[in-house]
Write a structure and sequence with these properties.
The complex is a heterodimer of chains A (631) and B (348). Chain A has 631 residues and is α+β, with helices and mostly antiparallel strands. Chain A has 3 domains: 290 residues, no CATH class; 56 residues, no CATH class; 145 residues, Sandwich (Jelly Rolls). Helix content of chain A is 48%, strand content 17%. Chain A has 18 helices and 21 strands. Chain A has a 6-stranded antiparallel beta sheet, with no helix packed on it. In chain A, β17 and β18 form a beta hairpin. Chain A is globular and about 100 Å long. Chain B has 2 domains: 103 residues, no CATH class; 228 residues, 3-Layer(aba) Sandwich (Rossmann fold), CATH 3.40.50. Chain B is built from 10 helices and 12 strands. Chain B has a 6-stranded mixed beta sheet with strand order 7-8-9-4-10-11, with helices on both faces. Chain B is globular, with a radius of gyration of 23 Å. In chain B, 38% of the residues are buried. Classes of the chains: A alpha+beta (631), B alpha/beta (348).
């Protein structure tokens, strides 16, 4: 999984963006709230002016704000909210929405036929499947239950018996939102459990026998049978009865030698992971050994993307260009390398060994030796003294996480005495303040190794997979909450189906925000990439490629381009105001890659959700308050 | 049924307002505190584009005083429901004001003292009676114990103890109406607004509803009801306002409005045929014009209620009516009750 720069931000870095405040989420939130207040006052005034006349309209708006602050907010009673939430909950339950959980179980049952446990990375396949299925199912459900409830209540006039009680608009809105969130929560819990069981059981398999076992100097070296298109080799050390197999497709087994000489092979372990990585800073060096900001670019992936993290500064045109982090490549057989500097490497964090993972890509400029992969080397180095260990050679394993470890001791030839001494890593390779460098080089000349900052990391700790899955579900829960808030908001002034469509449009715009940003970027920087919607349509009809100049002359061209600019800039503004749902969905990628979802990422999503819910709540309040319920 | 009493009257309807009603009405007349006040209240329904569709209410000025039963009367579409919705703040006036307990009708706070029974009982079909009342009790921030007690009282009051655990979707129209009434009373309100309170009820229900309305008034509560069932209004209301096409046509005390000034009504029992003739002579001698002299007709309502009560006392037996002692009267046919009498809705 390729992390983007903003993935590494801590919570406060995300919120305030020290040094680049224009990009900060805080500013974006404040601008959004101020804009909606201004817009709300304007719309409110226009509506009340139409209803009561220009003078009286002003007082009506002032009264609405006074009511909110003086009576409705302080008078909001938690117990009434709970009562209304319970009602919304019961309504949804008695409409049998829990059938969706049944539907999910059926999907899982059928998925067993189609998900191939013999694939290269079955854990990723299974985990991303269950999370994606849950995500879209729950979002669709949230859309349905939230958008239809209030309009139906108004249509059935059941709301008459509610609003003629001392119930405030704040309570109706909050009650609805909380009730539906409770419904969603009640559904997510069994779905999460089912997912866990499905993944856990789906990946389970046993090798039945040892097909080959040779005893060499008391050490038993053997091979298991092929199950699910793979087999393992294992070693049992002399005097031991148990040994481990090698890692194949992300898992290994324990092999036990029984007293009668037969072998028992245990269940798979290690495929459901939640690694807690410790990333370092990366520095590239070109083929002459000069420091460079990036390595070699081997493709056009970096043309666009990643703008979402720039916030307001992109919208107003301060931040330009893409911010997407793609793999940078190191040329083989030259002085080119990638230098990772890790800090906080201490004896406390790494008491036994220093585990580290490699997630590296290879780029071949010629086919090379087809039997062996591209080779690279790792050199562990003390950044202060320059002392380094003998480079460790490795063969690149692409598209998977290559788990390795560095023992805490190494053998060192004392040149003065001529003796081999055992020395400790922390005394020589790690500086006093806990820094250590790793140099990554490619050994095959004219071949390239690609890395990003997340390509090599130390792994001081491990979290449990169950907890990581819970965090992934929490992220789904947050998305659901956000959609419920939007659905309830739209349903305070639109009819059920229209409210649902409006919410769905918001969700779709949120999901396609990056594409909209891309389109704007292309328009801004005059890059021919198909242009805006009208230009695209023209190209579609004329069957023109998207990278050519638009084959329309004169006024028509100007007209098309300016209309497109207006549309794209409007969509850009709207998309910037909407929650960044793809970012929230992408937490599933962490879980599928076996990396512990960063708490900072989850905290960011939580705060963003809270902010949007607050905004939706305020908008809902004013619309409901201004609405003639019986009209 | 007092078949041996004789009535001299011009009116076909014999339902006299209960004595209590008159007493309470006179006490409310002395009290001046106004519970509902509408000032120049108008409502125009507009379509989406702001074009005028209906002028539903035109400059309505009424006052409802504490402790009285006030009736809004009028044909369909006369603005009764619009008035009630304006009073509740469900609609906003196009011009004019509504004050309820001296507060603007759109204020939420006033609802703490109000009970409202909507035109049809718009209740959540997926709840049962107990849950419904409990839910509405929660909306008043009532404590758990208070709610439990109140729900119990109200279920007994409207006679739904047996059906408390059934979802409202299974209820008959009358039962829903009762739950609707119970929810309107959950907060022991001072002002009760009833929109068509008797529709959908059977004769017993109607009678119970009317008795209940009177009982509420006797507890010092104010009741505003709107109806096109004239009989109901006449039976219970102290004052009525008659609306037609959004305009107030008549406003005043029921007793005053209905009093026919130059007709005298005499009720007497135990008169012989001779005595009756003598009375006829007396009237003739004084130059009076005898409009009717007859045995009074009992209402279908009385008949029906008697049958049901008797049937409850002695189940199974078909009621055999006693032959009327006065063979000259053709009214006795009425007392031949049969199973068909359940269709007897009293006023329609």
């Amino acid at each position: 999984m390729n992390l983007q720069p903003d993935d590494f931000w801590t919570f406060s870095e995300w919120l305030f963006r020290p040094g680049a405040f224009l990009e900060s989420a805080f500013l974006q939130g404040v601008v959004l709230i101020v804009l909606s207040i201004v817009l709300g006052l304007l719309v409110g005034y226009v509506i009340s002016a139409a209803r009561y006349g220009p003078g009286e309209g002003f007082y009506a708006v002032a009264r609405a704000i006074r009511d909110l602050l003086r009576t409705d907010l302080p008078g909001t009673s938690p117990s009434r909210i709970v009562a209304l939430a319970r009602l919304a909950f019961k309504e949804a339950i008695r409409r049998r929405v829990l059938f969706v959980v049944g539907l999910f179980v059926v999907i899982l049952l059928l998925a067993g036929w189609f998900l191939n446990p013999e694939s290269d990375d079955p854990a990723r396949l299974y985990i991303s499947f269950v999370l994606t299925a849950t995500n879209y199912l729950v979002l669709a459900l949230a859309l349905f239950i939230s958008a239809f409830s209030l309009p139906q209540d108004i249509e059935n006039r059941t709301i008459f018996t509610i609003v003629t009680k001392p119930v405030r608009a704040t309570e109706i809105v909050l009650g609805r939102m909380l009730g539906f969130v409770a419904v969603g929560t009640v559904m997510l819990v069994p779905m999460g459990l089912a997912s866990y069981i499905f993944v856990d059981r789906g990946l389970d398999h046993t090798h039945y026998e040892v097909v080959q076992a040779d005893e060499i100097d008391g050490r038993i070296v053997g091979k298991t049978d092929r199950v699910r298109r793979h087999s393992h080799t294992f070693t049992i050390e002399p005097g031991e009865t148990q040994g481990l197999t090698n890692f194949v497709r992300g898992h290994r087994h324990v092999v036990t030698r029984n007293e009668d000489g037969s072998f028992t092979i245990g269940p798979p372990t290690g495929q459901l992971r939640a690694r807690i990585p410790a990333y370092g800073e990366i520095q590239f060096y070109d083929r002459n050994g000069d420091p460079k900001e990036t390595g070699i670019d081997v493709g056009a992936e970096r043309l666009a993307g990643g703008y979402g993290s720039a916030g307001i500064s992109r919208l107003i045109g301060v931040a330009k260009g893409n911010r997407k982090l793609e793999h940078s490549y190191v040329e083989g057989g030259t002085l080119g390398m990638a230098e990772f500097t890790f800090d906080n490497v201490t004896r406390q964090r790494f008491p036994d060994k220093i585990p580290f993972d490699l997630s590296i890509r290879a780029y071949r400029s010629f086919k090379g030796d087809i039997e062996s992969g591209i080779r690279g080397s790792l050199t562990f180095k003390n950044p202060d003294t320059g002392f380094s260990l003998t480079p460790k050679q490795f063969t690149v394993e692409e598209y998977q996480i290559d788990e390795r470890e560095l023992p805490l001791t190494f053998e060192w030839l004392n040149k003065e005495t001529g003796e081999v001494e055992t020395r400790n890593i922390f005394d020589h390779v790690v500086t006093e303040d806990g820094r250590m460098q790793v140099l990554l080089k490619c050994l095959d000349s004219s071949q390239y190794l690609g890395v990003t900052k997340s390509g090599l990391y130390l792994r001081p700790a491990e979290s449990s997979f169950a907890w990581n899955l819970t965090k992934a579900y929490a992220s789904i829960w947050l998305q659901m909450t956000m959609i419920i808030a939007f659905g309830v908001m739209f349903s305070t002034f639109l009819s059920g189906p229209v409210a649902m469509v409006a919410t769905a449009v918001c969700v779709l715009l949120g999901f396609s925000a990056e594409s909209i940003y891309d389109t704007r970027h292309f328009i801004d920087s005059n890059i021919e990439r198909g242009g805006g919607p009208i230009e695209s349509l023209v190209r579609l009809v004329k069957q023109d490629a998207m990278t050519t100049q638009l084959d329309v002359e004169g006024v028509a061209n100007t007209l098309i381009k300016s209309a497109d600019a207006v549309i794209v800039y409007t969509m850009d503004a709207v998309a910037t105001a909407l929650p960044n749902l793809p970012r929230m969905v992408s937490t599933a990628e962490y879980a599928a890659s076996g990396i512990d979802i960063f708490n900072a990422v989850l905290a960011r999503h939580s705060v963003a959700t809270l902010g949007y819910c607050l905004l939706a709540f305020l908008i809902s309040y004013f619309f409901l308050k201004a609405r003639e319920i019986a009209a | 049924m007092d078949t041996d009493s004789t009535a001299v009257a011009d009116s076909a309807d014999e339902n006299t307002p209960a004595g209590a009603a008159t007493a309470a009405a006179s006490s409310s007349a002395t009290s001046s505190d106004v519970v509902i006040e509408t000032r120049n209240l108008s409502k125009i329904y507009k379509d989406f584009w702001g074009r005028k569709k209906v002028h539903a209410l035109k400059s309505l000025d009424i006052e409802v005083r504490k402790g009285e039963i006030f009736g809004l009367l009028g044909p369909n579409g006369s603005g009764k429901s619009t008035t009630i919705k304006l009073i509740l703040g469900l609609l906003f006036p196009t011009s004019g004001r509504v004050l309820v307990f001296d507060k603007d009708a759109t204020e939420t706070k006033k609802n703490e003292q109000i009970g409202y029974l909507p035109e049809e009982s718009y209740l959540y079909q997926f709840l049962n009676a107990e849950e419904t009342l409990d839910f509405y009790g929660r909306l008043f921030d009532m404590s758990g114990r208070q709610r439990k007690q109140r729900v119990e009282e109200l279920l007994t009051l409207v006679g739904l103890q047996g059906a408390r655990h059934r979802q409202l979707r299974e209820y008959s129209k009358g039962m829903r109406r009762r739950v609707g009434l119970a929810q309107a009373l959950i907060n022991d309100p001072d002002l009760i607004l009833l929109d068509e309170p008797t529709t959908g009820l059977d004769p017993i229900g109607i009678r119970e509803m009317k008795d209940l309305i009177l009982a509420l008034r006797d507890q010092g509560k104010t009741v505003l009801l709107c109806s096109h069932q004239l009989g109901d209004v006449q039976d219970v209301c102290d004052r009525v306002a008659i609306l037609h096409q959004g305009e107030l046509k008549e406003l005043g005390r029921v007793t005053d409005l209905l009093k026919v000034q130059d007709v005298t009504e005499v009720h007497a029992s135990g008169l012989s045929e001779d005595a009756k003739n003598e009375i006829r002579d007396v009237i003739a001698r004084h130059g009076g014009d005898l409009k009717a002299m007859d045995n009074p007709t009992a209402t279908m309502e009385d008949l029906f209620l008697n049958i049901v009560r008797e049937s409850e006392a002695r189940p199974g037996a078909r009621r055999v009516s006693a032959p009327a002692p006065d063979g000259a009267s053709d009214q006795s046919a009425d007392s031949q009750a049969d199973q068909g009498s359940q269709s007897g809705s009293d006023q329609s």
